Amino acid sequence: MAKFHFWVFLLVAVAVSIGALMLAAYSSPLDLNSDYITPILPLDWVFVQDLSHPTYFPLLFRRYSVSQVSPPQPPAGFFLLISEVMYASEDGDPALEWIEIYNPFGQTASLEYNKLGDEENCGGSEGMLRFPPGSTLAPRHTAVIANSADAFRQLYEFAPDFEWNDSDPAVPNMLVYAACGTRSLNLANGGDEVIFLDANDHWMDALSYGTSSLGLNPPIPTVPAGHSLERYPPWFDQNLASDWREQDFPSPHLLDLTPPTATPTATSTATPISTSVPTSPPVPTPIPTATLVPVLIINEILADPGSMNGDANGDQVIDSYQDEFIEVVNMTGETVDLSGWTIENSMILRHTIPPGTMINHQCALLVFGGGAPQGLFGNAVVQLASSSRLILGNSGDTVQLFDATGHLVFSYTYGPEGGDDQSLTRFPDILGADPLVRHFIATGNTLYFSPGTKVDGSPFSGCVPSPGYSK
Q1: Based on the domain organization, do 103 and 248 belong to the same domain?
Q2: Per-residue pLDDT at 182
Q3: Does residue 132 have a cis peptide bond before it, meaning omega lies within 30 degrees of 0?
Q4: Contact predicate 314/448, CB 8 Å
Q5: CATH of the domain at 408
Q6: Gap between the Cα atoms of 290 and 19, Å rounded
């Protein structure tokens, strides 16, 4: 009889332990995708407290401990952007709301710990959603998060990448993030905010429109039903309402790649033209289709230093190779580490950017063909071509910028206009449309070039004083 009682007790204890584990898993606020229960010897009795309830559960045979796994931290200067928002459909159906996000960098971003919603304060009553486990966003890709995949597909004829109200089992569902919001997402037509949180629940990006000024102050004006808000250019972020414009024809997975001709405004109604590059309709997976967009811009090129006025590097020696230069401006919104990036022309490697090269937002990297550069160059970061020459073609060439992983970030092709004893430059700086113009056109025949600075010789706003140049 004693043996019988022992085995009965043993079976009951095991059943209680298994039940306690299951209850704790479902009732505890611990995220089982990022927190792990690890067995530790020796075998014995312990009690584990469910962190959300004043109840203790006995566990038999093994001691368990909860291991907090810190979310992966992105590299310094790495960020994602909200690129388009549809908050008011033409027929007023909230099921047609959607948000597009964009990864402007040359490396895959984990979305697993990111959140998206309209709750500005953690613990509030509005919506905040987290991406499902394993979600990623590939380099220079967009992802569309829709209210309803079914409604979205009926209108746009392809599925979104995620949905926040379950309508299609093939489309991953966003998850309510109870730590910062108590319900799903619902964007108000008259005014609201869209907030994108990082792994630590800090604001990575945000916008507000209409009556809300919590994300942007002043906010973006509201748009008519059936129109969307679009960031333009899609990599440009000043945290201003002017970063956004009204889009008459909402365009999920379509980024307008045409360079702006002036500072973008929130009331512009231009639509993507034929040079925009749409992405293919996504398959039911968290990884959407690539869309290449530059985040660093080739702003000025000198291929043909003049024999009389061509001393671009300021070393008092005019040299047709050493005075050539390429100017690249950082418009990512953050300081960027360009270590290991490369510059090519005619598909030949001309310069490998050395380790530790950090370029501030709205500052320039200036690469000369050679020589001994003298001067401040607008406090730009100055380097010499690692191959000792740039050898830019006077009658035409293609200059390409690649990131450290070999992804093409920006490319520019010029023709015979490059061989006119002066540089080719964007005008206005940074935002000027292709093609680049002769420097005389931009300055009224007063300057042949402006290495490291704007066309008028003034520094870019992000450049800070530097003790010199690096080779």
Answers
A1: yes
A2: 75
A3: no
A4: no
A5: 2.60.40.1260
A6: 46
